[in-house]
Amino acid sequence: MAEPLLIADQLTKRYGGLTALDGVSLAVEAGGLHAVIGPNGAGKTTLVAHFAGELIPNSGSIRFAGEDITELPAYARAARGLSRSFQVTSIFGDLSVADNVSLAIQAHAGHSFRFWRAAEEDEVLRAPALQILADLGLADRAQESAANLAHGEKRVLEVAMVLASRPRLLLLDEPMAGMDPGDAVRIVKLLAELKRRYTILLIEHDMDAVFGLADRISVLVYGQVIATGTAAEIKGNEEVRRAYLGDEEVA
After folding, report:
1. Confidence band (pLDDT; 50, 70, 90) for 250?
2. Burial of 29 (0-12, 13-18, 19+ CB in 10 A)
3. 111 CB contacts (<8 Å, ≥6 apart)?
4. Residue 62: what pLDDT?
5. Rounded to 10 degrees, what is the CA torsion of 76, 205, 10, 79?
6. Residue by residue, what is the 3-state secondary structure of the chain?
7. How far is Cα 76 from Cα 164, in angstroms, rounded to an integer?
8. Has residue 209 got a pLDDT over 50?
9. pLDDT of residue 202 exceeding 70
10. pLDDT mean over 217-231
């Protein structure tokens, strides 16, 4: 049986007297979508930051595609196919939509491109950028200033920039944060399409979206994984209901 694509083994992170992660272990299988849910302050974003290489654990290990990456910096992980989005959009508002994606492709390519050359003038960058935007339904906004996009469109653009790095695993940190219902529906449809092509680790508070999309769910509470299973298993887990879901009815 193949080893999971991403494995966290007993990750612990302390900040003085605060333990943000307390022996977290989970495995993300290749293919499909694995969600991590939990209350605010549970350690979800801290966990993703460890996977992305922005934080190094006090103890424990991380393996990606069979390689120990625990000590690797973020850029080295990105080069291996670990790509992350953030809770707050990180686009260049004064550039066009297409330029944002072109620059993301250029950054991933590193020294193989001349960074001083305008991305809009380089067809090697431009063509794949436009294709990614077309795949995500933003082709008609390619020449628009990114600052003029609606909130939901900016989140889609950020996903496009993540896809520009040709990821093996997408780390998506609350892509639906701050969205109105219409935008949320758009992102759910986008995630449903993306999970057919990419392995996704999703942090999200929208439980309807999580239970509708996730193949596996891990529940993080006070820095510990208290349960992992299918949507049905998590819905029926009494410990999870007491710690997080409460009496909320989830379709």
Report:
1. very low
2. middle
3. none
4. 98
5. -10
6. CCCCCEEEEEEEEEECCEEEEEEEEEEECCCCEEEEECCCCCCHHHHHHHHHCCCCCCEEEEEECCEECCCCCHHHHHHHCEEECCCCCCCCCCCEHHHHHHHHHHHHHHHHCCCCCCHHHCHHHHHHHHHHHHHCCCHHHCCCEHHHCCHHHHHHHHHHHHHCCCCCEEEEECCCCCCCHHHHHHHHHHHHHHCCCCEEEEECCCHHHHHHHCCEEEEEECCEEEEEECHHHHHCCHHHHHHHHCCCCCC
7. 16
8. yes
9. yes
10. 96
Domain boundaries, the chain: 1-81+167-251, 89-166
What's the confidence (pLDDT) of residue 106? 82
- For strands 6-15 and 169-173, give the pairing: unpaired
Q: Residues 120, 99: contact at Cβ < 8 Å?
A: yes
For the question of whether the overall pTM of this predicted structure is more than 0.70, the answer is yes
What pLDDT, on a 0 to 100 scale, did the predictor assign at position 56?
Answer: 96
Lowest mean per-residue pLDDT among 29-38, 66-75, 89-98: 89-98
CATH of domain 1-81+167-251: 3.40.50.300
